[in-house]
Design brief:
This protein is α+β, with helices and mostly antiparallel strands. The chain has helices spanning 2-6, 64-85, 91-107, 152-162, 169-177; strands spanning 10-15, 18-23, 49-51, 56-62, 116-124, 128-134, 140-142, 145-148. The protein is built from five helices and eight strands. The chain has a five-stranded antiparallel β-sheet. Strands 2-1-8 form a three-stranded antiparallel β-sheet. Helix 2 (64-85) packs across helix 3. The chain is globular, with a radius of gyration of 16 Å.
């Protein structure tokens, strides 16, 4: 939990017509060369938002190595589901699959828990747009608006005050930029 509270903030807002994920990219040093990162994200040095499938995007806060391991596991699980059932994996099922793995690492001696929290944003034909949060223990829950990382208490109180049930994507973008 310590690594997560020192990571950059990631916010997620569920809108009527989409889901918005926004991440603060912390520059750890003045000498860090950011020219090698890809334009538009989805990989590269210090990225906090990853594309898992065509219908699921994840924001991470915590240990980068743990996040990369979980991202690779999630992509493999999603491809396995696509191959088996010829359809994209539902968002909650993918979150549950990752949380089962995370929970197993808290249960056995000799394994340390993953030091990362994840925000899953996605769409599936069953429940439309969805936003889930999972913590290092393997618990996950659905949210209308939430955040992880540094200063999450401040951001959470802002989201509680400003969030409306019928919010649109444009308004959600303005909300996460505050």
């Amino acid at each position: 939990m310590e690594a997560i509270s020192h990571a950059g903030t990631v916010l997620g807002v569920l809108a009527a017509d989409g889901v918005v994920l926004a991440a603060e990219k912390k520059v750890t040093g003045k000498l860090l060369d950011l020219s090698v990162t890809k334009e538009g994200g989805y990989g590269g040095s210090g990225e906090k938002i990853y594309l898992l499938t065509d219908n699921v995007v994840v924001g991470v806060a915590g240990l980068t190595a743990d996040a990369n391991s979980l991202i690779n596991y999630a992509r493999t699980a999603a491809q396995r589901h696509l191959f088996t059932f010829n359809e994209d994996i539902p968002v909650e099922q993918l979150a549950q699959r990752l949380c089962d793995l995370k929970q197993g690492y808290t249960q056995y001696g000799g394994l340390r828990p993953f030091g990362v929290s994840l925000l899953y944003a996605g769409w599936d034909p069953y429940f439309q747009f969805q936003l889930y949060l999972s913590d290092p223990s393997g618990n996950y829950s659905g949210w209308k608006a939430t955040c992880i990382g540094a200063n999450n208490g401040t951001a959470q109180s802002l989201l509680k005050q400003e969030y409306k049930e019928d919010i649109k994507v444009e308004e959600a973008i303005a909300l996460v930029m505050k």
